[in-house]
Amino acid sequence: MKQNIHVKAPGNWVNDPNGFIYYKGMYHLFYQHFPYAPRWGTMHWGHAVSKDLVHWEHKGLALIPTKREDQNGCFSGSAVECDGKMQIFYTGVRYETPDPENIHLCLNDQLVSSQLRIASEDGFHFDNFHDKQIIIPEMTDPEIGDRTHTRDPKVWRGQDAWYMVLGSTDRRKSGKLLFYKSEDLHEWKYVNQATTDEKLGWMWECPDYFETDGAQVLIFSPMGITEDGKKYKDQAVCTCVKFEEKTCSMEIPDSFQFLDYGLDLYAPQSTLDEEGRRMMIAWLRMPELEEDTWNGMFCMPRVVEVKNGHIYFRLHPYLKKAFSRKIETVKQAASEGYCISMELPEEGKISVGGYQIQRKNGRIVTDRSNVFPELKEYRMQFESPEVRDGSHLDIYVDKNMIEIYINDGEYVISNAVYGLSEEIETKETYTLFTV
After folding, report:
1. How many CA atoms lie within 13 A of 75 on its CB side?
2. Which residues contact 368 (CB under 8 A, 6 or more apart)?
3. Are 71 and 44 in contact (CB under 8 A)?
């Protein structure tokens, strides 16, 4: 199944992006996938590939549950290249008490997690029955990590060894990170842990550490951090940290940025592109099915840059280049969507198919009430922090997703939408582009 621009569920359900890597001339994007219904269930790894981050092709299932340790799901993880092979690391889960009414769920979080490894010679073929290795068994020491909520290994090559970070929680139900070290990707040794001084969520999912532009960056997804009573209390955040590799000690400030101020994106994962740029992709949470057959898609890849301590998420240049054909009206847009490029001054407004955007008090404020199901438990209004780099917006519009890049990624607001019209209403000047 081929897709362009946004990677969407090939059918049924997708969530977290996994194993994002440029390997042997191809971009590989694995993802959490329930192949039997358009709802969350026993996790497998789906697989999509691309040569240019624009044109994608789904390749079916890569990981499936086969061992006792992953019999109830192959949860999230990452990929690296070593000795020419793609090495994948992921969390396997086993339910202690399955739901008798739905074996794809468990009762009261009664499950245990372990960390596994599997390798592939070409990045396409995985022997799920013979090649899986348990590298970190279920936790037995609660001072290190929680036996249920320790997951999502992100692996990277350091100066002298391989390193891994896992998300976990402590006895106080406060999120934290666990750091491991390995010489050969097979034997792993626990080294250290880190958390914030002020409690930030009860568990930290999908941690991702990397360096770019001379800064050390942590992206993670703390669970239970919003307090407005709306759905999606779990959010993706990012911050600059201080990390000392030898001891795996990390200083994490209490302040942070949201990865995306639309608050619909979650579980981001980063990698290096073919030119060495740090880029990331994330899952768009969708409250309702689309076409009654699928749920879940991914944002366009974004280059991560740091300037004066601020973390920018800029649309990847391959995607910018793809939207290069000028058009006069939305009706002329390709099926992949369109881009509105414009300056939005203070008190300026634009309606994009019913999705409202305005600049107010130096912030970009949006409202999707007219293009979203009548679900009161979800947020409808969003706003960025005060913007400082100018007034430029690039608004990328897909049938089910709008991504607003403010001043080339100073901030981004992305939202799930349904039922957009083809009308654009504004008093401001704008230019339209499509692929």
Report:
1. 25
2. 355, 356, 380, 382, 402, 415, 417
3. no
Write the pLDDT tens digit of every residue in 289-307: 998 899 999 999 999 999 9
Q: Is the dihedral of CA 58, 59, 65, 67 positive or negative?
A: negative
- Exposure string of 283-312, with b = 16+ CB inside 10 Å and e = fewer, is bbbbeeebeeebbbbbbbbbbbbbeeeebb
Pairwise CA distance, residues 374 & 64, whole Å: 36
Whether 309 and 388 have beta carbons less than 8 Å apart is answered as no
330: alpha, beta or left, given left = phi > 0 and alpha = psi -120 to 50?
alpha
Between β-strands 44-50 and 55-63, what pairing exists: parallel, antiparallel or unpaired? antiparallel
Q: What's the farthest any 2 CA atoms get from each other in the chain? A: 63
Whose structure tokens read 């414009």?
Answer: 342
What region, left, alpha or beta, does residue 347 occupy, with left being phi > 0 and alpha being psi -120 to 50 degrees?
left
User: What CA–CA distance (Å, rounded) separates 239 from 392?
Assistant: 24
| Residues above pLDDT 90, as percent of the chain | 99
Residue 320's H or E segment, with its range, is helix 317-322
Model pLDDT for residues 180-233, shown as the tens digit of each residue: 999 999 999 999 999 999 999 999 999 999 999 999 999 999 999 999 999 999
Q: Cα 65 to chain center, whole Å?
A: 22
Residue whose structure tokens are 């740091």: 306
Q: Which of 282, 423, 411, 410 is nearest to 351 (CA)?
A: 423
Tokens of 273: 């592109």
Question: Among all residues, which ones are annotated catalytic?
Answer: 16
- Output the CA torsion sign for 147, 189, 195, 159: negative
CA pair distance 396, 352, nearest whole angstrom? 10
